Amino acid sequence: MARESGVSRTTVSYVLNGKTGVTIPESTRQRVRDAAARLGYTPSAAARTLRSGRSDLVLCVLPDWTIGPVIDTLLDHLATRLADRGLSVLVHQSRGPRPLSDLWRAVTPRVVLGLAPFAEDDERAMRQAGIQVVGSALDADAQPGTFSVPQTRIGQLQVEHLAERGHRVVAYAAPSDDRLAAFADRRLAGAVLGCARLGLPEPQVEAVALDVASAVAAVRSWRSGTEPVTAVAAYNDEVALAVLAGLRAEGLRTPEDVAVIGVDDIPAARLAAPALTTIWQAIDAQARYLADAVLAALDDTVEPPAQPDDVFHVIARDST
């Protein structure tokens, strides 16, 4: 680089690293920048971290979940909010046997943000290395300072809404992907709890893949008993849309024969026929909380940000 631009290595370093307090003619700066462009030079993040003693990187660790509209939107909001503070987000999805420590030691983040709890050994090692750790959980009884999204409440809200519409025999459409068990098991537990509190029979559970054949099989099972199911609480909107397709294939009307409620309020829910009733999640508020928790950790703020109050509510549409 120095040879290409005809200046000293020190001058190259000053220009490329934006060092202040030194006088370098603009023509020389431009010559260095032009040489860097010709040579395809890219600054080393690791080297910059060593020089400054700090990183601008937030490592966001995802468990082995499927990445759907909700997680995608959450990450988009999170990255945008942190970018306003000059922080970049690197998303890592935990798959395979490679330990998390290999990653954070290689990329030297300032903060590691987990969308699920870390193993105790991992969290201890990161804190000992001077890395701030911010966690979240799927349960309402998470540790203080940890953001929690109580999944059981979602199932309860679904059942409560269906019961308000006069339904007494409820089914639960579970996802067919085992990677979603952490969410699905909790949402189903909430539906079971909701039925018990309202004096309803326990929900009839069938796994529904995202295809018509699977949904038809589930619908036939739900409707074959002495008390046919009249309402379905689905794991999410995608599963609910599959259930709607299965009902149409069986010649059943929604909501006259079978009502359906989903979760997430994805754009397709509004376009379904009939429009899908769903549980709305405050994804923007969740992302804002997580970003603020990261910033609080960096600023050594003792008190974590306040958790949002309105995390879920029902959006009633034609399917119920």
Automatic annotation (TrEMBL):
GO molecular function terms attached to this record: DNA-binding transcription factor activity; transcription cis-regulatory region binding
Domain of life: Bacteria
Entry keyword annotation includes DNA-binding: yes
Family annotation (Pfam families): LacI, Peripla_BP_3
PROSITE patterns registered for this protein in UniProt: HTH_LACI_2 (PS50932)
TM segment ranges: none
Annotated ranges, domain HTH lacI-type: 1-52
Database matches in CDD domains: HTH_LacI, PBP1_LacI_sugar_binding-like
Alphabetic keyword roster: DNA-binding, Transcription, Transcription regulation
SMART domains, alphabetized: HTH_LACI (SM00354)
Protein name: LacI family transcriptional regulator
